[in-house]
Specification:
The chain is of the alpha+beta class. It has 7 helices and 14 strands. A 7-stranded antiparallel β-sheet has the order 1-10-8-12-4-3-2. The protein is globular, with a radius of gyration of 20 Å.
């Protein structure tokens, strides 16, 4: 990253690098999508809209598993995985030793697809994926890289964010979250096929606006993390998996509560401990 990119990234929480993929690379990735349409699954209508009037629409279709496809159809996405443009910037954004945490998937939204309510902005605070700046070095535990396989014209929908929200010191108002009264803060950057978008995932308030364009949106999302950050990991976190069944066998519920492996996106589903007035430790 040069000084201009670092400034824009630190100030806004996202960054667009233009014309990264060649026309041939775009065509190869799109061919993979076309040949695997039977793998595309659509979500429920308005499942991500958060009750918003502005964001409502049909369910968002997605294609997953591209890294596992047979050759040559996996190759465009494996190339994106460690593309030099990505490596150069993630070494600064996430720190050396970054890794893929989950994904990739292709968002394949036709006209009328619903948006996704604004989320992130450190609500709740997750230190593993938060943005931090110290001694002239920036660090973000979770960065999403979105490759564009089709144009996203301004005003047509797709990725949107509240620039600078990764530094907010106050809770995000409900109208901003839903987009129904966003105070003019939500920005949808114009993107072209071949561009690559970086954004601070959990640190920045971000989401998507309903897709209005006649040509379907196609964005490939890779979810990266710093080497010590855990963004997903739910399937690896239970004590009997993380430590092994033999070690945790016979433990009390309270003892097992501190034996879960790390992952930030637990949604409150892991047990938390508290101490009663009489000194008894129990699970909340």
């Amino acid at each position: 990253m040069d000084a201009r990119e670092r400034y824009f990234w630190d100030l806004t929480g996202y960054l667009v690098v233009r014309n990264v993929l060649t026309p041939e690379e775009i065509a190869a990735a799109n061919e993979t999508v076309e040949r695997h349409t039977d793998h595309i699954q659509a979500g429920e209508d308005n499942a991500l809209a958060g009750g918003s009037e502005r964001l409502k629409g049909t369910g968002r279709p997605m294609l997953t598993g591209m890294l596992e496809f047979e050759k040559p159809y996996c190759e465009p996405f494996r190339h994106m995985l460690v593309h030099p443009v990505v490596v150069q910037r993630l070494n600064t954004m996430c720190g050396t030793g970054f890794r893929l945490d989950h994904g990739p998937w292709v968002i394949t939204s036709p006209k009328g697809t619903s948006g996704h309510q604004m989320h992130g902005s450190g609500q709740p605070h997750r230190p593993h994926v938060a943005y931090h700046h110290q001694n002239g070095v920036t660090y973000c535990g979770g960065v999403t890289v979105a490759w564009q396989l089709s144009d996203c014209p301004r005003g047509m929908g797709g990725f949107a964010c509240v620039p600078g929200s990764h530094k907010s010191r106050f809770p995000m108002p409900g109208g901003v979250s839903t987009g129904d009264n966003d105070m003019g803060l939500i920005v949808q950057p114009e993107l072209k096929a071949g561009d690559v978008l970086f954004f601070m995932d959990s640190a920045q308030s971000h989401g998507a606006l309903p897709w209005k364009h006649e040509v379907a949106r196609r964005s490939v999302l890779f979810k990266y993390a710093g080497r010590t950050a855990i963004r997903s990991g739910r399937e690896f976190a239970p004590p009997e998996i993380y430590w092994g069944e033999e070690l945790v066998e016979g433990m009390t519920e309270e003892q097992r509560a501190v034996m879960y492996g790390p992952y930030s996106n637990h949604r409150g589903e892991v047990p938390f401990l508290t101490v009663e007035d009489d000194g008894t430790v129990r699970v909340e």
